[in-house]
Amino acid sequence: MTDSQAPARADRRAEIAAGLARVRSRIADACAAAGRDRAEVTMIAVTKTYPASDVVTLVGLGVTDVGENRDQEAATKAAQVAAAGVAPRWHFVGRLQRNKVKSVLRYADVVQSVDSVRLASALDAGVTAIGRDRPLDVLVQVSIDGDAARGGAVPDSADPDAGLGAVTEAVAAAGGLRLAGLMAVAPLGWEPERAFARLAAIAALVRADHPQATELSAGMSGDLEAAIGHGATHVRVGSALLGMRPTLR
Ligand SMILES: *Cc1c(COP(=O)(O)O)cnc(C)c1O
């Protein structure tokens, strides 16, 4: 580090600390409003487009969980963060191609975006191939509006690859995977309240068949209150913590 970089780094730390304080108080307020215990909700800092140094800063401020949505960026960043001596829990939250499974398994503790039987099988095979000592935590991504084109397994669909029932069964049956719960993004143009109410109903149905699927990852910078109101156990927050990203991705 040169002298000229030091003030910028201190500023960045203050900026992140302020963002974190705001998000933490929003989560606490939303829990209070919903009559929920604050300890039921984990914040995942989504650090895509931001550097490894921001992840290290977040961990220094008490953040335990980090999310990324692109393998190439995440693999590099996770290695840099590990080299800095900190070890957050890494969640992969983006669309995952089967040819990236091996790479993702090197750093991910949780994959939140499993939305097909084929992807579940590839992850299970990958876990076996690398000799992972315990099953990989998986959330099945749900398409709240049933539009499979934007990702997510489709509720009420008998599709053998992308139907929600088929995907949850495949994950639950895979020895290398643990079905931890569901993940979703509110569809564009939907009121968050309506989207997360529907998600909560879907989650209740999944839990009737798979009681272990207790986690619900829903809510981002713009709609975390509505998600917490409808039972989210994990909120995935990027821009409210770290600032607006230069490009939408
Ligand atoms: C980018 C991203 C987030 C965070 O979005 P913000 O609006 O910046 O909080 C959450 N979930 C997923 C899947 C993402 O890709």
From TrEMBL:
Q: Which domain of life is it from?
A: Bacteria
Which cofactors?
A: pyridoxal 5'-phosphate
Which GO MF terms are attached to this record?
pyridoxal phosphate binding
Q: Which Pfam families match?
A: Ala_racemase_N
The keyword Membrane is assigned to this record: no
Q: N6-(pyridoxal phosphate)lysine occurs at which residues?
A: K48
The Alanine racemase N-terminal domain is annotated at: 40-246
Instruction: Cite the entry's keywords alphabetically.
Output: Pyridoxal phosphate
PANTHER family documented for this protein: PROLINE SYNTHETASE CO-TRANSCRIBED BACTERIAL HOMOLOG PROTEIN, PYRIDOXAL PHOSPHATE HOMEOSTASIS PROTEIN
Tell me the protein family, please. Answer: Belongs to the pyridoxal phosphate-binding protein YggS/PROSC family.
Its annotated function is as follows: Pyridoxal 5'-phosphate (PLP)-binding protein, which is involved in PLP homeostasis.
- Protein's name in the database: Pyridoxal phosphate homeostasis protein
Source organism:
Micromonospora sediminimaris
